[in-house]
Amino acid sequence: MKVSIFDVAKKSGLSVVTVSRVLNGAETVREKNRQKVLEAIRELDYRPNAAARSLARGKTGIIGLIVTTLQDSFFDAIVKEMNEVLAMHGYFLAISVSDGLGSDGSHYLIQEDRVDGLILLSPMEEDSYIVEMKRRGIPYVLIDNQKPENDAFSVTINNLKGGYAAAAHLLELGHTSIAHLCGNETFRSTRERRAGFLQALEERGIAPFEIVNGDFEIAFGYETGKRWLEQGKLPSAVFAGDDNIALGVVNALMEAGVRVPDQVAVVGYDDQYIASQLHPQMTTVRQPADKIGLAAAEMLLKRIEGKNKRSAVQRIDPELIVRESTVGISHRER
């Protein structure tokens, strides 16, 4: 039997009017009551009648999402959270995997009356997108955008703080020979993580073992680790720009019989699923995908309803997750 709004009201112990207000993103609902309604919706697996709601509001009931790749567990977690939040408000999520505005998928979504709003996840050509979305009057939100001047409606991560936390952790463990493997320079996150890393080292008067630029790929970490081994000179610790790079470093070291963390400590970034499945489990800097997805969805819903006409910037802090791939100098095997 199909679950109705009346079932949600009964389950939450609140009125149908309150449930309706929550579904429509009204700010007049108390947070405690809003959580009761959302919990009831999840437990009952309630899905609003999107067609009827869209007709009543004069909208399509579709939110567009443009992303450069879905081959990333961090991106996947963000999309999952956004999809759940938007579904609760009667919206369907239409996804386009695109490298730029010229591709068929993104061009299709950025059309009048195709979508009620757009979310761009880690866009590479954000300027051209923004110009087109503004021209067509499409509400939008950026996640992990590359240019600070485009932060007007965005959800970003404090990557400088994340890079600082990773370096500070290694320094506190007694490491003074620390390398940093950066991701692609195009990404703002690359530059900010490196800046945080360098700030932590500079505060202690320590120079990095080496800073190497590459791509957010396993191969980059592996090749750099192999080069160090061939040169016969290893850092005592590595801060990798993401978990993929970190995995590549670990593979190269362990293949050569170098123990992690007993001989080289390694810190990754993102806390992708693989980080907790490795042996040793990876110390990493977690980007809270659930908070990012929720913040972006709620920001866009407010823009669609005309409640957020001025700039709205949300910057979310990452979290250092200490696991098995880091150890202090004094605790290493002799």
UniProtKB/TrEMBL annotation:
<dbReference type="InterPro" id="IPR000843">
    <property type="entry name" value="HTH_LacI"/>
</dbReference>
<dbReference type="Pfam" id="PF00356">
    <property type="entry name" value="LacI"/>
</dbReference>
<dbReference type="InterPro" id="IPR010982">
    <property type="entry name" value="Lambda_DNA-bd_dom_sf"/>
</dbReference>
<keyword id="KW-0804">Transcription</keyword>
<feature type="domain" description="HTH lacI-type">
    <location>
        <begin position="3"/>
        <end position="57"/>
    </location>
</feature>
<keyword id="KW-0238">DNA-binding</keyword>
<dbReference type="Pfam" id="PF13377">
    <property type="entry name" value="Peripla_BP_3"/>
</dbReference>
<dbReference type="GO" id="GO:0003700">
    <property type="term" value="F:DNA-binding transcription factor activity"/>
</dbReference>
<dbReference type="InterPro" id="IPR028082">
    <property type="entry name" value="Peripla_BP_I"/>
</dbReference>
<dbReference type="GO" id="GO:0000976">
    <property type="term" value="F:transcription cis-regulatory region binding"/>
</dbReference>
<dbReference type="InterPro" id="IPR046335">
    <property type="entry name" value="LacI/GalR-like_sensor"/>
</dbReference>
<keyword id="KW-0805">Transcription regulation</keyword>
<protein>
    <submittedName>
        <fullName>LacI family transcriptional regulator</fullName>
    </submittedName>
</protein>
